[in-house]
Design a protein that fits this description.
The chain has 242 residues and is α+β, with helices and mostly antiparallel strands. It has helices spanning 26-38, 71-81, 135-145, 193-205, 211-220; strands at 2-9, 45-46, 55-64, 86-94, 106-115, 127-129, 147-150, 165-176, 179-186, 235-241. It folds into 2 domains: 2-94, Pseudouridine synthase I, catalytic domain, N-terminal subdomain (Alpha-Beta Plaits), CATH 3.30.70; 106-241, 2-Layer Sandwich (Alpha-Beta Plaits). Helix 1 crosses helix 2 (71-81), helix 3 packs across helix 4 and helix 3 runs parallel beside helix 5. The longest helix has 13 residues, at 26-38.
Length: 242
Amino acid sequence: MRWKCVCAYDGSGFHGWQSQKNSEAVQDVIEKSLKTIFEKRIRIHGSGRTDTGVHARGQVFHFDASWRHDSGRLLAAFRALLPVSIQIKSAKLVPESFHARYGAKGKEYRYYIYRGTADPFKTSYCWSIDRSLDLAKMQKAADLLVGKHDFVAFSLFNGDKVDTIKDLRVLSVNERGRHISVTAEGSGFLYKMVRSLTGALVNVGQGKLTPTDLYEILKNQKRVSLVRTAPAQGLFLEKVKY
């Protein structure tokens, strides 16, 4: 039996999604709960990694296990065992051909910025910027980046050999009061790509780069210092699409 689960988590206290030595990741905590529920070790397979401090509202993972009860009982067991910082939002049976990572057709991320200094209840979930931002220029630059391109200039590498050509379907900048969000939707994303895009757009908004500069960086395929990496705490994995 293969189970597809959608989960949300506050990444503040975890070393990312993926299990690793000598630190606790979200995957580790979920697998510990599954070991208690099924009385054996069960490996989960996520749609992809999120870094230390990054949050998720719609991370997807799958695992294989026989369960005599309905999905409601499984969700109740998760609730009893997981910390409040991790929530399994849904669990359903899927065909064994389903794979959380390899079956994904796209992902949607959202990055949150606060104009000014955020209060203590928001600081773990946004990037406070106490400087003016030209959102019109940011959106103009964002529009130039949409499409299928080599995004090597907007990534950092962690040793993996990956295809740096990605289809960026949406890159939008929206404002509501003091709250600004950058939404990125695409076929997939490189390591720290969304945070790099956001950091570069902020530099456009502050006048350190022009939209044309940003497009030239994309085409030159070479990262420069003005493509900075936005802080982790403002980033949320919103949705994985299949």
